[in-house]
Amino acid sequence: MLRLFKSSQLHSVPSLSPTSAAAAAAAAATATSRIAITPLARAMSSSTQKPRFSEGTEEASASSSLDSLLSGHWTLTNEGEALERSFKFKTFAKTWVYNTAFIRWTTHHPKGLSTKDLELAAACDSIARDFGELEPEPVSCEVRSVADRATTSAGDCCIPKKSG
Q1: Distance from C-alpha of 86 to C-alpha of 74, rounded to nearest angstrom
Q2: Which residue among 9, 35, 58, 116 is buried most deeply as judged by most CB within 10 Å?
Q3: Which pLDDT tens digit goes with each residue over 57-106?
Q4: Which sequence ranges are marked TM in the entry (predicted)?
């Protein structure tokens, strides 16, 4: 699932099929929010968290892909079950509202990081470069907290809600 967060609103895109992943990554690269993660926060997150891969994920190859992403701007969430980062662009035309997007990739079932999450994160990086991504500015990590609260309150999208 891809979730895009802005401190005053939440945009949510349901689970993606493999055929729509590239389109979603392109949309994600031009999405909006107001956040950047400082280099210190990025270093702390990527160095202190251990990844929790989803069941069935080949950890050796996934770890190699993950290391490559973590050496860039991606960070692990506190639980190690998701990757997240922000993207900044020069102009309004390259984005939806402002000039920065916050993206978090994770797999809900089975829970944890999967190779699809890693592939889509890499696709976001590639598309963001094509769109002229700028170096993110240091801004409060408040959006990460908003993302955590929204994820918790939204529940698990992969488990049908019981009708009552």
Answers
A1: 8
A2: 35
A3: 999 999 999 999 999 999 999 899 999 998 888 776 666 656 778 889 99
A4: none
Q: Does residue 161 sit in helix, strand or coil? A: coil
Dist CA 83 CA 113 (whole Å): 8
Average pLDDT of span 112-119: 96
The domain spans of the chain are 2-152
How much is the average pLDDT of 25-38?
38
Overall CATH class of domain 2-152: alpha beta
**C-alpha 29: how far from chain center:** 11
Q: What pLDDT score does 25 carry?
A: 43
